Amino acid sequence: MKTRVVLEGSRAHRLWQGAGLALAVLVALALPLLSSDFRIGQFSLVIAYAVAVLGLNLVTGFTGQVSLGHGAFFGLGAYTTAILVTDHGWAWAATVPVAALLGLALGFVVGIPALRLHGLYLAVITLAVGVAFPVVVSQPVGLALGTGGVAGKTVQVSWDKPAWFGLDVSDRGWTFIVMAAIAGVLFWLATGLVRSRMGRAMVALRDNGTAAAIAGIWPAEVKTVAFAISALYGAVGGCLYLLTTPIVSPATVGFTITLLFITAMVLGGAATVSGAWIGGIAMVFLPYYTAEWAGQIPVLRELTDQPGLFANVIYGLILIVFIYFVPAGLVPLLTRLRTRFLVIVPPEAAAGPTPSGSDTTPGAPDGGLAGPSPAIGGPVTAAGDHDLSHDPGPPARAMAPPRGSSQEERT
Amino acid sequence: MAEALLQLSDVHAAYGEVEVLRGLDLEVGEGEVVVLLGANGAGKTTTLRAICGMVGTRGSVRLAGQELVGRPTEWVIRQGIAHVPQGRGVFGSLSVEENLRVGAWNRRDTAGIQADIERWYGVFPRLAERRTQLAGGMSGGEQQMLAVARGLMGRPRLLLLDEPSLGLAQIITRELFRQLEQINREESVSMLIVEQNAELALSFAGRGYVLESGSIVLGGTADEVRGNEDMRRAYLGY
Amino acid sequence: MSPNIDNPAYLLTLLTGGLTNGALYALVALAIVLVYKTTSHINLAQGEMATLGAFAVFELTRRGVPVWIAIGIAFLLSFALGAGLERGLIRPLERRGVFPVILATLALFLIINAGVAIIWGTQPVEAPEPIPGGIEDKVDVLTGPPPFFVTYVSLGVLAVLVALLLGLWLLLEKTKLGLGYRAVAANREAAQVMGIPVGRMYMFGWGIAAALGTLAAALVAETAGTLDFNSMGVILIFGLAAATLGGFDSVPGAAVGGLVLGLVMAFVPGLFTVVEGDLSVVIALVVVLVVLLVRPQGLFGTKTLERV
Q1: Cα–Cα distance for residue pair A6/A132, rounded to 1 Å
Q2: In angstroms, what separates the C-alpha of A275 from chain C's closest C-alpha?
Q3: Residue B68's domain is classified under what CATH number?
Q4: Quick count: other Cβ atoms within 10 Å of Cβ B12?
Q5: Region entry Disordered: which residue ranges (chain A) (predicted)?
Q6: Which domains are present in chain A?
Q7: Assuming Cys at both sites, which of A242, A346, C114, C210 could form a disulfide with A309, CB separation 3.0 to 4.6 Å?
Q8: Among the three residues B101, B133, B155, which one is the final residue of a domain in this structure?
Q9: Does B151 map to a domain?
Q10: Could you tell me if B219 and B184 lie in one domain?
Q11: What are the angstrom distances between the C-alpha of B221 and each of A176, A343, B47, B225, C99?
Q12: Residue A375: its chain B contacts at CB < 8 A?
């Protein structure tokens, strides 16, 4: 196929973007039309998880802060909604802002230690928060708040499809469409965030904290805001979860789900927005199909009565395979695949020689969402030429072999 | 002519994508003291690290005819090289005596190790006074002496010294070099010294090299190096 | 305030209970510290590896192996597993920084946790009893009323901690291997140029840590009476809190941190009935927060955790 080159921000680019958006809307409307209620429920769960994973991407993937307590934020949102709906008769929609604000507040509080503490301390603190949360909700103190203890909190949210909605979808399908719309807004906001000044500051902080501080970025501000927003997404993910599942229990929001969020993040691509969708899909369908397959293989069926456990083993293996072989996740891979027939060039790059042919790789993966990351797919030879022609350097340097020849030499 | 004790030919070394050594040639003869001069970032420390296999290296580094490139550091050290790293690098949470014992890691002769410890205590009496003290609590000069003595505990054929005078008072530096000279004379330990204090180093070394941007731009006897116009202007300041 | 505040038997029971649990936290903290000292990594799968070791003990005793011999075999197997995982899984990631290593230990967590549940089931099993744990296996101290006694299990757990500390001290301070390990811990690069095989010291740390963890999990199971695939989940948090309190690079710190944490977690709810229920994990979280904000290097530590 012939490669098209499109200038970022140009009419053609807008057209492609519009087409992509239209396709997404079409899929969101077609799924509930074509699927059974069971499938729609699964797709709805994908949405809830994807939103939560996106939150983790923002703080860990983009900002580089280790967060091992994301399940607690997810649980906070789910429990807030469950308690307000079941015990206080609130409408689901009314609970979302409350859950979001509580998530924001808890994220901010967890982010405060991040101001003074780096890396592993943060891992310890967030891990402790993540492990403490399900314990607290199952204790008497949690019961007093209405968490339902170990058994969990049941909640019934069921919507009827409004009369004005023309498509012939079930009530579940209608719920799915509303969830998709909410998720669409949240992903759109996240895309805007990572492209904003704040987003660039987050990436700068991740790549080189000291340099970022010198460049006038205030790390404290960026870190706490990143944690707070991450927790907000986690909490809203928890609210959405209750539209698919009528109960939340300590087992749902334990450390395991945090691990699954992390695996999902790595799978899709930690420093991408769209990777959260891949992660969400994996979180729903991987255990489902694993359990199904394991149930069909006699050896595995005899081994345990809980075939879902095999999914966790597979998650672990996926995590290891991805750390070793696909550390950037699937989205950058897919983006590279896309560039075989569509290349989007930022305006400043187009000022130079126009790239032609399918061998040209765009500078930034994920359509530039990941921020400047020249290490991946950048035009290596061009950079080398630039280096030699613009920097005469001392005479000894002229004897240097061409750049890149030494790169394979790392032992 | 027999091959020198240490022979570097066309050595390239890189940290990730940044190539620091670009085709470096250098040799140190048996019993010889050689000084390596150069500006900050010229690649002096990297040269020593390349010899020890602590940085990705291409080319050839031979010790008494034996190729070192591609070998792990602990193997290189076993061939008779001691490296006194920059900024002393003593084991701060170990006692002075334990530091010396770590220096003798590859030796099995318990009695010989004990004798050597006593010997360096004799050479550096300050260390004897503080033998049970944690190395991290000592002054900079004492730590430097400990680092040198620790390097010599391995009974090396070749001693690599990285900026031994860094951060030391002048009087202590002189004393240190006096000791090194004596060790070289009495033990015939060969030495390759990286040094900022060019004047002092050239007064002690037999030969010198000047390193610039990862390769040797000048090499010769100490007098030749000292006599070179460019060299004088750049490093000696007269 | 508890109404039992002036009851000596009650206070002594809190004391022995706190010390016993504290000794268990100390063992886990020791494992974490022994990995951290040389590699500067925290193995988040430490608890799950320990659970696996405890199940190995369970399996061996079920097949008729005497319990202490079973512990010895599991101890050696754990050492091999720990050292092997360091070499095979963690070391290749070493150059890529801390985050990939954290992810790898989380992957291990998932795999071992689920693997144990698949092999031995999700229901608790009866814990092996290395120390006599019957009703009558106790030393009566105060005849009462109310009586005060110390169980053999409590005495045994504390004795194991003391014996292990002594053994570790001998190993680290009096052997050449220990000297090399401490040299790597003190200055990795300098140790390398002394000719010390740094990688093997990492493996040694991981191996010893895994072996200690197995012992800890076997004892945790005995004090709890049962063993299941999630036995060490919360204990890992307590171990991390104890290591934070004592200092991540300090062996004596881990022991003191564990005992202090155990006492705090016994006396705070025992004397002040602020809230109902078992909120020990919240106490641990508070301890971690206070230590990190007031004295990040812990009571005995020297380095602060600054990788990443």
Answers
A1: 50
A2: 17
A3: 3.40.50.300
A4: 22
A5: 351-411
A6: 28-333 (1.10.3470)
A7: C114
A8: B155
A9: yes
A10: yes
A11: 83, 60, 20, 6, 50
A12: none
Same domain, B161 and B145: no
A209-217 mean pLDDT: 71
pLDDT one-digit tens code per residue, C278-305: 778 888 888 988 888 888 888 888 766 5
CB atoms A306 and C122 under 8 Å:
yes
147-186 of B, contacting A, C-beta below 8 A: none
SS3 per-residue string spanning chain B: CCCCCEEEEEEEEEECCEEEEEEEEEEECCCCEEEEEECCCCCHHHHHHHHCCCCEEEEEEEECCEECCCCCHHHHHHCCEEEECCCCCCCCCCEHHHHHHHHCCCCCCHHHHHHHHHHHHHHCHHHHHCCCCEHHHCCHHHHHHHHHHHHHCCCCCEEEEECCCCCCCHHHHHHHHHHHHHHHHHHCCEEEEECCCHHHHHHHCCEEEEEECCEEEEEEEHHHHHHCHHHHHHHHCC
Distance (Å, whole) CA A186 – CA C141: 64
Q: Judge whether C40 and C307 are in contact, CB under 8 Å.
A: yes
Same domain, B170 and B143: no
Judge whether B86 lies within some domain.
Answer: no
What residues contact residue A138 under an 8 Å CB cut-off, 6+ apart?
A: A147, A149, A150, A250
Alpha helices in C43-150 (DSSP H): 46-62, 67-85, 98-120
Q: Which domain holds residue B150?
A: 91-155
CB contact at 8 A, A72 and A137: no
Helices (H), A150-196: 171-195
- Check: CB of residue C195 under 8 Å from CB of residue B78: yes
Same domain flag for B22 and B55: yes
Please say which residue of B112, B135, B155 terminates a domain: B155
The residue count of chain C comes to: 308
For residue B149, tell me if it sits in a domain. yes
Give, as one character, the DSSP assignment of residue A361: P
Question: Is B65 in the same domain as B180?
Answer: yes
Query: Looking at the complex, does the CB of residue C301 fall below 8 Å from at least one CB of chain B?
Result: no
pLDDT in tens, C250-272: 999 999 999 999 999 988 887 77
**Residues of chain C contacting B90 with CB distance shorter than 8 Å:** 187, 190
Check if the interface score ipTM surpasses 0.85.
yes
The pLDDT of residue A83: 94
Residue B85 placed within a domain: no
Closest to B85 (Cα-Cα) out of B144, B137, B39 = B144
**So where are chain C's domains?**
24-232
- A239 versus A152: the higher-pLDDT residue is A239
Rounded Cα distance, A293 and A301, in Å: 9
Residue among A399, A407, A411 whose CB faces B215 most closely:
A399
Residues B231 and B199 grouped into a single domain = yes
Choice between A48 and C3, residue whose per-residue pLDDT is larger? A48
* Interface membership of C143 toward B (CB under 8 Å): no
Chain-centroid distance, C-alpha A244? 19
pLDDT at A263 over 90: yes
Q: Which helix (H) or strand (E) holds A87?
A: helix A70-88
Q: Are residues B163 and B150 in the same domain?
A: no
Mutate to test the interface with C, among A62, A70, A120, A263 (most CBs of C within 10 A): A120
| Number of domains chain B is built from | 2
Q: Do C106 and A319 touch (CB under 8 A)?
A: yes
